[in-house]
Amino acid sequence: MTVVAFLSALGALALLALASDRHRDRWHGIDPRWRRSAGWALVAFTFVAGFAAWGPVYGAIGATGLLMFGAGVSFLTLNLTRR
Predict the structure, then answer these.
(1) For the chain, what is the domain count?
(2) How far apart are CA 34 and CA 79, in angstroms?
(3) pLDDT tens, residue by residue, 25-82
(4) Please, which residues have CB within 8 angstroms of residue 80's CB and are 6 or more apart in sequence?
(5) Full-model pTM
(6) Range(s) of the domain holding residue 48
(7) CA 56 from chain center: how many Å?
(8) Whole-angstrom Cα distance, residue 47 to residue 9?
(9) How far apart are CA 66 and CA 59, in angstroms?
């Protein structure tokens, strides 16, 4: 379940970053409104998976940490790669 939480955190922040005004032209497949909605749904799923993996107290801490890691990976990937 930890791997599921990790992958959902990466996907959530990638979708939210790709829905922003700066990066919305990098992926033409899905409307940015759907990217934003799917990103927030994956954020919620990250917390559900974190609670299932570590319990309610450590799950919230772990899910928040995974989301911060996903934000860092998305930030570096989108800003250090060229279009």
Answers:
(1) 1
(2) 22
(3) 666 666 778 888 999 999 999 999 999 999 999 999 999 999 999 999 988 988 888 7
(4) none
(5) 0.84
(6) 2-80
(7) 20
(8) 9
(9) 10
